Amino acid sequence: MTAAGLFANLRRTSLAAMVLVCAAVASAQQGPVASLNASPAMALPAIRATVPPRPEAHRFWDKENKILFAAVAGMSAADFAATRSNLQSGGKELNPVTRLFSGSTAGLATNFAGETAGVIGLSYLFHRTGHHKLERVTSMLNVGVSAVAVSYDLSHR
């Protein structure tokens, strides 16, 4: 497989990896179900012993999320600039979704702005449903994938 083919598959597999990580973390947060045949007095101490303490609630726009979202926006801007530069010098967009928007600079900017908004929206969804680890992991994965894309774009100028 060529390097171009490898990079094209990297974005597809990163989405699959993100889904798998989300599923694994969500299933790890599930607690055991109390037996229906046990009396409530007997089941209550067992449940208390097995349920982990609830993480402290935090505001969505706390310091850590602001830093993560700034990193997401910064890496998205860097990815936009590197991709635009490569496309203007005769390169080809390897991501099939981004390729739909790569006909113009405005379309490409819209794609990367939408990607950033989507990451923040998905993080907010995880925050509202109490999946605070996934809330942070979503941004971290996006920063990592964008860093790989920028590195690839810069190495193939």
Beginning-to-end CA distance, first to last residue:
20 Å
Largest sheet, if any? none
Helix content: over 70%
Sheet/helix structural class? mainly alpha
Radius of gyration: 21 Å
Q: How big a fraction of the residues is strand?
A: under 5%
Order of helices and strands: HHHHHH
Record field, number of beta strands: 0
| Alpha plus pi helix count | 6
Q: Mean of the pLDDT scores?
A: 79
Low-pLDDT sequence parts: none
How would you sum up the global shape? Answer: elongated
Secondary-structure map:
Layout: H1 3-28, H2 40-50, H3 63-88, H4 96-99, H5 105-128, H6 132-155
Helix pairs in contact: 1-6, 3-5, 3-6, 5-6
Question: How would you explain this protein's 3D organization?
Answer:
The protein has 157 residues and is mostly helical. It has a domain at 59-157. The protein is built from 6 helices and no strands. It has helices at 3-28, 40-50, 63-88, 96-99, 105-128, 132-155. α3 (63-88) runs antiparallel to α5 (105-128) and α5 packs antiparallel against α6. The protein is elongated and about 55 Å long. The two termini are 20 Å apart. The model has no long low-confidence stretch (mean pLDDT 79).
